[in-house]
Amino acid sequence: MKIGILTSGGDCPGLNAVIRGAVLKGSRKYGIEFVGIRDGWRGLVDADFFPLQRADVKGLSKVGGTILGTSRTNPYEGDRGGAENIKKTMYGHKLDGIIAIGGEGTLAAANRLWNDGVPVLGVPKTIDNDLQATDYSFGFDTAVNIATEAMDRLRTTGDSHQRCMVAEVMGRHVGWIALHSGMAAGAHIICIPEVPLSIEEICEQVESASERGRAPLVVVAEGFKLKGQEEAYSDKGLDAFNRPRLGGIGEVLAPLIEERTGIETRSTVLGHIQRGGSPSAFDRVLATRLGLHAADAIVDGAWGQMVAMKGTEIERVTFEEALGELHEVPLSRYEEASALFG
């Protein structure tokens, strides 16, 4: 059996650990031959393959990024795109199936290819933790740790100048990174996509913290919307899947907070810092386990499915289950955190 592995969408700490887990177990226990596919779906469309052997994945669990490279290419675009062309390419290179490691956009493309007859298995990857079918996705824990450390640093400079510090973190549709890192860093208000707030409500918590002698810390997810705001803030155009490239809401909030409260306010966008560096121990273990179980799923012929974490176990779910709805922050979790605001 010959299997191709690709990583698609945004990079993420733990991708290499998945690759390592799948290759080690697949080759040693099942005798599977693996092929690396460069730069996500682009490499599959262009037949940009290379042998992926045990020696190539040695020591990868602690390495950030992805040795395969990644992109946001749509596999149905271009002269060589589409399911029929991809099936011909796979047949010509004797590929029996594909392991696609990625987030919502990647898994949606994988599901479409599966429905069109391409054997694809999914491994969930999203630092946003926004896939409903898995309790946790690797990369999330690392992103929270990085964001928390950055906020700890912002708080020291904010305390020195008695400034309000606004920290913008990733989170297109859901606020898990903002919620967890904000709670860990002792934020005075957390703004997430699931709970629109008015600028007055935000400033009320900022002033409350300031009156207690604290330098206010505001944490905001990139997908947060003020009340009355129909779309999340974006001025960077569209990505390959025609989704707005978010980012910049922190720069919008900072002058509004300063204008209304009179407190000097600075904004920091953490951006891709959250994606970089070595994965945390939790993410190394989770990613490795997903890779190990992906090898098992291939042997069982579980195409059109995704390996997922349920509680502490790794299970399999269909692409339809994985893409049915987003894993949003429940209102109860936000209300729990709000006891710490102000």
UniProtKB/TrEMBL annotation:
It holds the Pfam family PFK. The record marks 105 as: Important for substrate specificity. Mg(2+) binds at residue 104. It is found in: Cytoplasm. Residues 2-298 form the Phosphofructokinase domain. GO terms for biological process: canonical glycolysis; fructose 1,6-bisphosphate metabolic process; fructose 6-phosphate metabolic process. InterPro entries: ATP_PFK, ATP_PFK_prok-type, Phosphofructokinase_CS, Phosphofructokinase_dom, Phosphofructokinase_III, PKF_sf. Its main location: cytoplasm. Belongs to the phosphofructokinase type A (PFKA) family. Mixed-substrate PFK group III subfamily. PANTHER family: ATP-DEPENDENT 6-PHOSPHOFRUCTOKINASE 3 (PTHR13697:SF52), PHOSPHOFRUCTOKINASE (PTHR13697). This is ATP-dependent 6-phosphofructokinase. The gene is pfkA.
